[in-house]
C-alpha cells in the first residue's frame, strides 16, 4: 500500500460556509482573521484507489483554512510555516509524498523551501496539469472541427510555470501562438526561448487579453489572477477555451452568453479503482480529481518519491513522463467537462450549430 497527502484550501470566502455554516452570518474579515489562527486539519481520507499495475493507494487531504487573498497577501515566511505544519501532519499520518493544491503551489518559491523543511518529497502537480490540459484542449478542438495545426492559439498567463510549459507543448503541434502575461520582458524572453527550439513558429506576445483572445481558435487560460479576466464578447465563434486556473479565469457568464463557444475545465481526471473514494466533495462526480492531485497519486503509485515538479519552471521531459505514468496506472481525462458538469455529444452538436449560426449572421 502506497500513501500520499494533498494540501487543499478554500478558493472563495463562500467555501468557509460550506464547511462551517455559521460563518455566513459573520463579517468576512472577522472569519478570515479567525481562520488565520487555525492550523491544518485532516479534511478527507482517500481510499480504494487501485492501479491496473497492481499497486493500491490511500491518502489524506490536509486542509488549510486560507483564501487565495490571504495566501498571496501574507508574508511568505508566515505562509511557509503554515505549509510546513500541513506537511508535518501529512508525515505523521504516514504519507510518502505530499502535493500542493491551488494557491499553495503559487506562493513563494513553488514548493522548494517547503521541500527543504519536510522529510517527504513535494510536488505541485503542474506537470500532469500541463499534460492533460493540452491533451484535452486539442482533442476538443478537433471535435469542434478546428485544424489544430493551423489554429490561432493563445495562452493567457504564459510566463507562469504551467503557461510556459503548455506553450512549449503547443509549439509542437500549432503554427501560430500568442502569449499573454503582465510583464513584457518575461514575454519576450519566453518568445525567444520558443523560437530557439521552434524557429518556424509564428509567436506573438502581448499584455492585451481581449486583443489576444478575439482572433483565437484555441485558448488556454492559466493566469494566477484571483477573478474572471476573459470577457464573453471577446471570444471567437466556435472557439475552444480551457480554464486551467483556480480560481477560474472565466465565469459562468461565458457559457450563458456564448452558447457558440466550447468552454472546458482543465485537467479533471478519473482515478482508477472500482471502489475509489476521494473522501471529500470537490464538486466532481465520484472518482474524479484535479490533475495536480492526480500527479501526486501517480508518483506515489509508481514509487517515485522525489520532488518531481517544484520551482518556477517545468521540464518538458517531466510533462511527458508523468503523462506516460498516468496512463500506466489507469488515470485518464474525465471526458469534456465545464463547471464540474459533463459535456455530451448532443451538447457538442448544439455548440457547433450555434457557432455556425453566429458566423452566418456576423458574416
From TrEMBL:
Pfam families: Shikimate_DH. SUPFAM superfamilies: NAD(P)-binding Rossmann-fold domains. It comes from the Bacteria. Residues 142-256 form the Quinate/shikimate 5-dehydrogenase/glutamyl-tRNA reductase domain. InterPro entries: NAD(P)-bd_dom_sf, Shikm_DH/Glu-tRNA_Rdtase. Signal peptide: none annotated. This is Shikimate/quinate 5-dehydrogenase.
Amino acid at each position: 500500500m502506497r500513501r500520499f497527502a494533498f494540501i487543499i484550501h478554500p478558493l472563495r470566502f463562500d467555501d468557509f460556509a460550506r464547511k462551517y455554516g455559521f460563518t455566513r452570518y459573520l463579517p468576512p474579515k472577522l472569519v478570515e482573521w479567525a481562520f488565520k489562527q487555525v492550523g491544518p486539519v485532516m479534511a478527507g481520507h482517500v481510499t480504494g484507489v487501485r492501479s491496473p499495475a497492481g499497486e493500491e493507494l490511500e491518502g489524506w487531504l490536509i486542509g488549510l483554512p486560507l483564501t487565495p487573498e490571504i495566501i498571496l497577501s501574507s508574508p511568505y515566511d508566515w505562509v511557509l510555516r503554515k505549509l510546513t505544519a500541513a506537511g508535518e501532519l501529512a508525515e505523521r499520518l504516514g504519507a510518502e509524498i505530499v502535493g500542493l493544491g491551488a494557491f499553495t503551489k503559487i506562493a513563494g518559491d513553488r514548493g522548494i523551501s517547503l521541500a527543504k523543511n519536510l522529510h517527504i518529497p513535494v510536488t505541485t502537480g503542474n506537470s500532469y496539469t500541463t499534460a492533460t490540459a493540452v491533451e484535452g484542449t486539442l482533442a476538443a478542438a478537433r471535435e469542434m472541427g478546428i485544424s489544430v495545426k493551423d489554429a490561432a492559439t493563445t495562452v493567457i498567463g504564459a510566463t507562469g510555470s504551467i503557461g510556459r510549459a503548455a506553450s512549449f507543448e503547443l509549439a509542437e503541434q500549432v503554427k501560430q501562438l500568442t502569449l499573454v502575461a503582465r510583464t513584457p520582458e518575461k514575454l519576450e524572453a519566453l518568445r525567444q526561448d520558443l523560437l530557439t527550439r521552434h524557429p518556424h513558429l509564428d509567436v506573438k506576445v502581448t499584455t492585451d487579453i481581449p486583443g489576444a483572445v478575439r482572433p483565437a481558435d484555441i485558448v488556454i487560460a492559466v493566469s494566477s489572477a484571483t477573478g474572471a479576466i476573459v470577457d464573453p464578447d471577446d471570444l471567437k465563434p466556435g472557439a475552444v477555451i480551457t480554464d486551467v486556473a483556480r480560481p477560474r479565469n472565466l465565469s459562468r457568464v461565458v457559457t450563458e452568453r456564448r452558447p457558440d463557444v466550447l468552454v472546458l475545465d482543465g485537467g479533471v481526471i478519473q482515478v482508477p479503482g472500482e471502489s475509489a473514494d476521494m473522501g471529500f466533495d470537490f464538486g466532481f462526480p465520484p472518482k474524479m480529481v484535479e490533475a495536480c492531485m492526480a500527479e501526486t497519486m501517480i508518483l506515489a503509485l509508481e514509487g517515485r518519491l522525489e520532488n518531481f515538479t517544484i520551482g518556477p519552471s517545468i521540464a518538458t521531459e517531466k510533462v511527458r513522463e508523468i503523462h506516460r505514468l498516468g496512463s500506466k496506472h489507469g488515470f485518464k481525462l474525465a471526458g469534456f467537462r465545464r463547471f464540474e458538469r459533463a459535456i455530451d455529444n448532443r451538447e457538442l452538436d448544439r455548440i457547433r450549430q450555434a457557432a455556425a449560426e453566429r458566423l452566418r449572421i456576423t458574416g
